[in-house]
Amino acid sequence: MKLADYKATLSFSNNSPSMEMPVYQGSVGPDVIDIRKLYGQTGMFTYDPGFLSTASCQSAITYIDGDKGELLYRGYPIEQLATQCDFMETCHLLLYGDLPNAQKKTEFTRLVTTHTMVHEQMQFFLRGFRRDAHPMAVLTGLVGGMSAFYHDSTDITNPQHREIAAIRLIAKLPTLVAMAYKYGIGQPFMYPQNNLSYAGNFLRMMFGNPCEEYVVNPVLERALDRIFILHADHEQNASTSTVRLCGSSGTNPFAAIAAGVACLWGPAHGGANEACLNMLEEIQASGGLNKVGEFMNQVKDKNSGVRLMGFGHRVYKNYDPRAKLMQETCKEVLAELGLENDPLFKLSMALEKIALEDDYFVQRKLYPNVDFYSGIVQRAIGIPVNLFTGIFALARTVGWIAQLNEMIGDPEYKIGRPRQLFTGSARRDVPPINQR
Ligand code: CMC
């Protein structure tokens, strides 16, 4: 860590001696107070459940300005990446720090492409699952299982192992997600086809079959590629922090990424796209646009436990820039498929309009997040609702592995070990069983 830019003084109202702490300035964004010596000097911990005010690491990968609604990967605005680059370039950027030139892009794409096939034995491992299992349950198992199939790239202290594990994860996730889908519907697995793009290959593995030639629709291919770019990284979110914490024990990258997949599954995080589409379908089934007002009243009633899924974000207190791009993509895909009058799209536009004007949402700075429109796009492409979070996991894998490798390369990294404010019983003696 660099030297302090300035200092902060912590004083106490109980006459305990005050303490000076270094403050560091990032390249952009809030400064951080270094509290590492706090416990040693005062015997106190800080208390911050949910990490509302805690920077858990230093990172040079992704920056979010939640007030402005800005998202930068390695300094580049998401709007420019989504419109001028493809997912392979974005992966290169996140992993290695810069956009590839044409030659490097070809080399990188070739490297990923030649790792798309999975170990043949993995299909037998997959067959152990129930066919009606949730794809995220299957995916958590498959990604964790990769450490059993690729144990020649599990040594995180070896930079070559880290590199090859990263490429394997990025290359094989689409294959595994598509296999989980095909298994669920009882169709044969489709081997990857390496003359297709990353997104095109995924579409073919999902929707192709061995009996017919599959022709990739370029509009859908580009839409999927954009979904991948928009979900590729998002600084220290819950699943990325899980990957870092899990990886901090020195475990292998496949195990750490499996932990990230498990965390992503939750409805407050990656599971929100599935929850959002289910919500739209429920409103539609109960009366559609006529029921929007009633539904919004439920959302605003704290006792109902109902939330407007796809709305709100811990960091964005403005329109999520990914939601704008996703809304554009949504329009393009629906137009391509002749679904301009899609009732769920109309419903989501109506919900968005009401929410953006309603005091409840305005006061709390709740705006649409990326998941608000991504479900509609994916559904239009033909992806089943329970696979949405799997698509998110596929796209976020590059972010997870870039963050994990950054952590391992950081000389200040230590095993993550938070402390607690203990509120349980103080020491007591075990009474004999007949006295309990
Ligand atoms: N609908 C209704 N009220 C909401 C919503 C919502 N979607 N989100 C937040 N609020 C209210 C919440 O009740 C609270 O009100 P009050 O101050 O009166 O108690 C206030 O807004 C602040 O909410 P919070 O839960 O304290 O905020 P948080 O930062 O802990 O949670 C969140 C962020 C994303 C979990 C939450 O906004 C949420 O549950 N949203 C719906 C789920 C969702 O769309 N998640 C996807 C996030 S983006 C993709 C990803 O990161 O994976």
Low-confidence stretches: none
Large-scale geometry: globular
Topology pattern, helix = H, strand = E? EEEHEEEHHHHHHHHHHHHHHHHH
- From the alpha carbons, calculate the radius of gyration and give it in angstroms: 24 Å
Structural class: mainly alpha
- The number of helical elements comes to 18
Numbering strands along the chain, what is their spatial order in the largest sheet? 1-2-3
Q: Give the tally of β-strands.
A: 6
Identify the bound ligands. carboxymethyl coenzyme *A
Beta-strand content bin: 5-15%
Overall pLDDT metric: 94
Q: What fraction, in percent, of the residue positions are helical?
A: 40-55%
Describe the structure in your own words.
- This protein is mainly alpha-helical and 436 residues long.
- The protein is 50% helix and 5% strand.
- The protein has helices at residues 38-42, 78-84, 87-96, 102-113, 122-126, 135-149, 159-185, 198-207, 218-231, 238-247, 253-264, 272-285, 292-300, 321-336, 343-357, 359-363, 371-381, 388-408; strands at residues 6-10, 19-24, 32-33, 62-65, 70-73, 76-77.
- It has a three-stranded antiparallel β-sheet. A three-stranded antiparallel β-sheet has the order 4-5-6.
- It binds carboxymethyl coenzyme *A.
Outline the secondary-structure elements:
Layout: E1 6-10, E2 19-24, E3 32-33, H1 38-42, E4 62-65, E5 70-73, E6 76-77, H2 78-84, H3 87-96, H4 102-113, H5 122-126, H6 135-149, H7 159-185, H8 198-207, H9 218-231, H10 238-247, H11 253-264, H12 272-285, H13 292-300, H14 321-336, H15 343-357, H16 359-363, H17 371-381, H18 388-408
Antiparallel strand pairs: 1-2, 2-3, 4-5, 5-6
Helix pairs in contact: 3-18, 6-7, 6-11, 7-8, 7-18, 8-9, 9-14, 9-17, 9-18, 10-11, 10-18, 11-18, 12-15, 12-17, 14-17
Bound molecules: carboxymethyl coenzyme *A.
